[in-house]
Amino acid sequence: MKGRMISPGKTEGAAIVTNEPIGFYGGIDIKTGVVIEKGHPLEGRCIKDKILVFPCGKGSTVGSYVIYGLKKNDVAPSGIINKETETIVATGVILAGIPCVDQIEIEKIKDGDTVLLDADQALVTIQK
């Protein structure tokens, strides 16, 4: 699938997928990478070294710092794929150096799929 590059880089890994927006500030533990937002479909799951797939971000601008902090604490996702990347996530992934693309039909990616994310080319490939 062809999208738009938000932050460059290439990575491959298991997808962790939600159709719900993610708020990084108060939604993900900066020290562990575990989703802590009550009632979120990914609550209790760790995003470390996964390709995190979600429609868009939500919440406070502090979320950009949380994304950066996840990277500094070595618990960040290896890549992010969005339907629409808004400013909070874009700023965070650029600061943290996390490959990110948007304008992707995220409904085609299933939880656990092995995904090749080539943000340099704005390409997402589901490995078979």
What is this entry, summarized?
The protein is of the alpha/beta class. Helix content is 16%, strand content 25%. It has helices spanning 62-72, 87-96, and strands spanning 4-7, 10-17, 51-54, 79-82, 100-102, 114-118, 123-126.
Report on the architecture of this protein.
The protein is an alpha/beta fold. The chain has one domain (4-126): Glucose Oxidase, domain 1. Helix content is 16%, strand content 25%. The protein contains two helices and seven strands; from the N terminus they run E-E-E-H-E-H-E-E-E. It has a seven-stranded mixed β-sheet with strand order 1-5-4-3-2-6-7. A hairpin with a 4-residue loop joins strand 6 (114-118) and strand 7. Helix 1 (62-72) runs parallel beside helix 2. The longest helix has 11 residues, at 62-72. The chain is globular and about 35 Å long. The two termini are 14 Å apart.
Radius of gyration: 13 Å
The end-to-end span amounts to 14 Å
Helix content: 10-25%
User: How much strand?
Assistant: 25-35%
Which CATH top level class fits? Alpha Beta
Instruction: Count the DSSP helices.
Output: 2
Strand order of the largest sheet: 1-5-4-3-2-6-7
Number of domains: 1
Average pLDDT, to the nearest integer?
A: 97
Number of DSSP strand runs: 7
Give the helices and strands as they follow along the chain: EEEHEHEEE
The CATH architecture would be 3-Layer(bba) Sandwich
Describe the biggest sheet?
7 strands, mixed
Fourth CATH level, the homologous superfamily: Phosphohistidine domain
Q: Enter the CATH topology name.
A: Glucose Oxidase, domain 1
Write down the overall geometry. globular
**Uncertain runs with pLDDT below 50, 5 residues or more?**
none
Alpha-beta content class: alpha/beta
